[in-house]
Write a structure and sequence with these properties.
By secondary structure, the chain is an alpha+beta fold. It has a single domain, classed as 2-Layer Sandwich (Alpha-Beta Plaits). 17% of the residues lie in helices and 21% in strands. It has a four-stranded antiparallel sheet, with helices on one face. A two-stranded antiparallel sheet has the order 3-4. The N and C termini lie far apart (33 Å). The model has no long low-confidence stretch (mean pLDDT 96).
Length: 90
């Protein structure tokens, strides 16, 4: 599985629209709704933790945000191009 940034497989990474996505590996429990909703962005590694895939740039921004919202433990953080927290909501 190819990640967007091999040195930081769970991010943070910046998407083409300027959003920054990151998975908190300490919170991630591998439930995988993110992979079901945004399979082009998220995958699970051998440790059953979410990683950000090399194909993340091809996913619609709203799909990535929906995947973050679906995480049962809120392990995915999404910030807009200005650094404003989009999820989890403040």
């Amino acid at each position: 599985m190819d990640t967007k940034d091999e040195s930081k497989p769970s991010g943070p990474v910046t998407l083409p629209n300027g959003w920054t996505v990151e998975v908190n590996r300490d919170l991630c429990i591998g439930a995988a709704p993110c992979t079901a909703i945004a399979s082009g962005t998220f995958g699970l590694d051998d440790g059953n933790k979410a990683v950000i895939l090399s194909t993340a740039d091809e996913e619609a921004a709203e799909t990535v945000l929906d995947a973050a919202r679906a995480c049962p433990v809120g392990a995915i953080t999404v910030r807009d191009e200005n650094g404003t927290l989009l999820f989890p909501e403040a």
